[in-house]
């Protein structure tokens, strides 16, 4: 089982960014926990503040086979690009593997400009508002739905 976790803008500062919304744990801590919980799952992680990087990774893991080894799914926390990027939406729509949209906060309960996700209808599942634990829920979903 191979799963890519892709985070968008400002998620490189998890644990320091608005801890009342995003918590105090870093993504590095989350990844250590995920690897401990899923020792038989190969997890690859990328984060970028640049839209094109996110699109490249979605294409790489969702459409193209890296070294002829396909991935089983993608966990995508697109950050602010969730609400603005048609190009990112198009990349997700082309994915041949399930993409789980993940948000640490509940975007439906935040500022009105965050209520609309351009990704929800092209993702196979959405998790929001479960805090950092949402990453584990997303990995669980991929494991359960791709066997």
Task: Describe this structure as you would to a colleague.
The protein has 147 residues and is an alpha/beta fold. It has a single domain (2-145), classed as 3-Layer(aba) Sandwich (Rossmann fold), CATH 3.40.50.9100. The chain is built from five helices and five strands; from the N terminus they run E-H-H-E-H-E-H-E-E-H. The chain has helices at residues 19-22, 27-37, 51-62, 86-94, 134-145, and strands spanning 2-7, 42-47, 73-77, 99-103, 125-128. Strands 2-1-3-4-5 form a five-stranded parallel beta sheet, sandwiched between helices. Strand 3 (73-77), helix 4 and strand 4 (99-103) form a beta-alpha-beta unit. Helix 3 runs parallel beside helix 4. The longest helix has 12 residues, at 51-62. The mean pLDDT is 91.
The CATH topology assignment is Rossmann fold
Q: What oligomeric state best describes the polypeptide chains here? A: single chain
CATH class value: Alpha Beta
Q: Which consecutive residue ranges, at least 5 long each, have pLDDT under 50?
A: none
Give the number of domains. Answer: 1
Roughly what is the average pLDDT, rounded to an integer?
Answer: 91
Radius of gyration, taken over Cα atoms and rounded to an integer in Å? 14 Å
């Amino acid at each position: 089982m191979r799963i890519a976790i892709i985070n968008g803008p400002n998620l490189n500062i998890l644990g320091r960014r608005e801890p009342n919304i995003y918590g105090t744990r870093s993504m590095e801590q989350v990844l250590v926990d995920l690897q401990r919980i899923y020792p038989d799952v190969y997890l690859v992680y990328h984060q970028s503040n640049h839209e094109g990087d996110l699109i490249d990774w979605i294409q790489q893991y969702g459409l193209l086979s890296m070294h002829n080894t396909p991935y089983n799914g993608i966990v995508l926390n697109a950050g602010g690009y969730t609400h603005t990027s048609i190009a990112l939406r198009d990349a997700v729509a082309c994915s041949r593997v399930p993409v789980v949209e993940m948000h640490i906060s509940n975007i439906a309960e935040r500022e009105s400009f965050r209520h609309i996700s351009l990704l929800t209808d092209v993702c196979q599942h959405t998790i929001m508002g479960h805090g950092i634990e949402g990453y584990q829920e997303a990995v669980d979903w991929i494991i359960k739905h791709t066997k």
